[in-house]
Specification:
The protein is of the alpha/beta class. It has a single domain, classed as Rossmann fold. About 30% of the residues lie in helices and about 25% in strands. It has 4 helices and 7 strands, in the order αβαβαββαβββ. The strands form 2 sheets. The chain has a 5-stranded parallel β-sheet with strand order 3-2-4-5-6, sandwiched between helices. Strands 1-7 form a two-stranded parallel sheet. Strand 2, helix 3 and strand 3 form a beta-alpha-beta unit. Helix 2 crosses helix 3. The chain starts with a helix and ends in a 16-residue tail after the last strand.
Length: about 140
């Protein structure tokens, strides 16, 4: 980690917060009767596994298998570029749930719990690895 990284304000999101938030997302999703869940790599994968178990629905692993009854999940909708790119790739706007959303996102999720106000370090990350999360779906 370099000196610049030390100056970024960080919020450490905990496993307890994650568990509480997964209950809330699952309650919302259960009412929508989704048939599958897809997690955007990397940030959405942990959510997708958790929700697949909680909802008793399959987790799909390929974006090509997303349907209108699939819930797409990610840890955050920050700029919105990842979700916008996914939408263009599959040809429709899927239902999306995230834990965090940024006020300036170009792709507001259908369901989100927390507004991002600083750099988020998730419990499945390290402070160093979190900066590498700009991966393609």
């Amino acid at each position: 980690m370099d000196e610049k990284d030390d100056k970024i304000k960080k919020q450490f999101y905990t496993w307890q917060e994650f568990d509480e938030d997964m209950v809330k997302i699952a309650e919302w999703a259960r009412a929508k009767k989704f048939q599958s869940v897809y997690g955007i790599p990397r940030g959405g994968l942990v959510l997708a596994v958790s929700l697949s178990h909680r909802l008793g629905i399959p987790q799909i692993l390929s974006a090509e298998d997303i349907t209108k009854t699939t819930l797409v999940v990610d840890d955050i909708s920050d700029s919105g570029k990842t979700l916008t790119s996914l939408e263009a790739r599959i040809g429709f706007r899927p239902h999306v749930a995230t834990i965090f959303w940024h006020a300036d996102t170009s792709h507001r999720p259908d369901f989100s719990l927390r507004e991002k106000k600083s750099w988020i370090v998730f419990p499945w990350e390290t402070e160093v690895s979190s900066k590498y999360d700009a991966t393609a779906y």
